[in-house]
Amino acid sequence: MYQEDSLRHNQILDGRIWEHLIRSCFPLLKHFRFYFQYSMTNVKEIIESFSTPFYLLEKKWFIRCDFSYLMSQDRKGSPDGYDHKGVCYSLPLTFQPTFIYEDRYYRSISTSTDDLLIIQWKTLILRDNINEHFKQIQTINLRIDAPINRTFPLIKFQHLSLSKNANLSSNIFESLLMNSSDFYSLEIDNNFLDILTEHWTHRSICNQLSNKIRHLKFHSATNPSQCFSKSRLIDILPVFASKCSYLSLSIQSKIELVALILKRMKQLDNLHIHFLDKDHQPITIEWFQQNQTKFHYSNCFLTKKQENYYLWLDKYFS
Fold this sequence. Notes:
This protein has 318 residues and is of the alpha/beta class. The chain contains 9 helices and 16 strands. The strands form 2 sheets. Strands 5, 7, 8, 9, 10, 11, 12, 13, 14, 15 and 16 form an 11-stranded mixed β-sheet that branches. A 5-stranded mixed β-sheet has the order 1-2-4-3-6, with helices on one face.
């Protein structure tokens, strides 16, 4: 069961009601999976209702509640004067929803003594520093959408996106890269990556990026300062040339930079070029041949949408 809207009543999160229903109607049930969002006053009651011998000993079904504190409008209705807003789900978590972390006071409590607080989400959006209560997090997509000034817990991810609101130090960025062995995809602002790599002089970060990145997307430029110049390309291309197969970036108008990318990035399968200036020389297959790239009609497919060019490349056919 999966429910997105926040609950204000306790019955659906009352383990005693579910226990009675399962015993009377589904006695042979082997798996009981759910994910509920809620906003209510007493998380301990939820945990206690799912802590009976039926759940812990007979079925060995465990749950966890992740929650933050909100000041209760009616302090008399809450034992600690706070509402608890969060999610309650069965373990292991199989729904893998998107989770927005925007409260450093977020907490977690579980009915399992073996639960090491390994949190799993499909997409995790960070809008605040993660507190030390979370020991390990696994996610496919990690998006940082706020300034982060504290070292992360162990986060394993595949895709990292740093929005224009993100801000973190080179040390925190390095720690993120080093601790995630499955990381292969990065979306970031051109100028911000230049800062994080200390203008491409930070050897450890550059090595991590070179060894891991296969998918690289820079934010589309809205002004010339966000576009790649020839000197900036010469800085980054050696770092990503060995493994990167997808590249998306913006240039202002100089079409010869596209030829530079194709000659240096030997592993590219897909290339997206956004031109900031509308008045630029168009990219064509004939232009590729004139500029002595290895691509032609037999091994390159090219489409254009407004000022965006999309190239599908067969690097093995020349």
